[in-house]
Specification:
The protein is built from five helices and six strands, in the order βαβββαβααβα. By secondary structure, it is of the alpha+beta class. The protein has one domain: 3-Layer(aba) Sandwich (Bit1). It has a four-stranded mixed β-sheet with strand order 4-1-6-5, with helices on both faces. A hairpin with a 5-residue loop joins strand 2 and strand 3. Pfam families: DUF2000 (PF09391). InterPro entries: DUF2000 (IPR018988), Pep_tRNA_hydro_II_dom_sf (IPR023476), UCP033763 (IPR017021). This is DUF2000 domain-containing protein.
Length: about 140
């Protein structure tokens, strides 16, 4: 990704059990960290001179929504080239291998995928347009 993103929001299905929700955020975070250039800041030194690995340099709110909210965001974002989306589905979470996941996903149209979490990265206004009405995950 060559774009510079100002914000990245995670939206998690409100019906997921807490452990599955944390797993979903972790999986999405790995993909965002890999594909969104510049999202992780440089290492930081403390007063003792010890180095601490860089962490995210932009806001990463975790929000919750209904499964239909997640699907709607994915479909709307498809028409917004300035937005980067990573999705995580129940198919991915329940597959025993990446091969099984890709095979099962290939049989489902986008609108029918069972989304359980998404990460939306872009400008503050674009991310707010897609996720602004959703509450924080608490």
């Amino acid at each position: 990704m060559n774009a510079v993103y100002e914000k990245c929001a995670f939206v998690i299905d409100e019906d997921l059990a807490p452990g599955l929700a944390m797993n979903t955020v972790a999986a999405l975070s790995m993909s965002v960290g890999r594909f969104v250039e510049g999202i992780v800041g440089d290492a930081v030194k403390d007063a003792d001179g010890r180095t601490h690995t860089g962490i995210t340099a932009i806001p990463l709110p975790v929000l919750k929504g209904e499964a239909t909210d997640l699907r709607d965001i994915v479909l709307k974002a498809a028409g917004m080239p300035e937005v980067f989306v990573v999705d995580f589905t129940a198919v991915a979470q329940s597959s025993r291998s990446y091969e099984e996941y890709t095979g099962r996903t290939a049989k489902l149209p986008t609108a029918e995928l069972p989304y359980i979490g998404i990460a939306v990265c872009g400008s503050r206004s674009a991310v707010a347009k897609l996720t602004g009405s959703l509450p924080l995950y608490r």
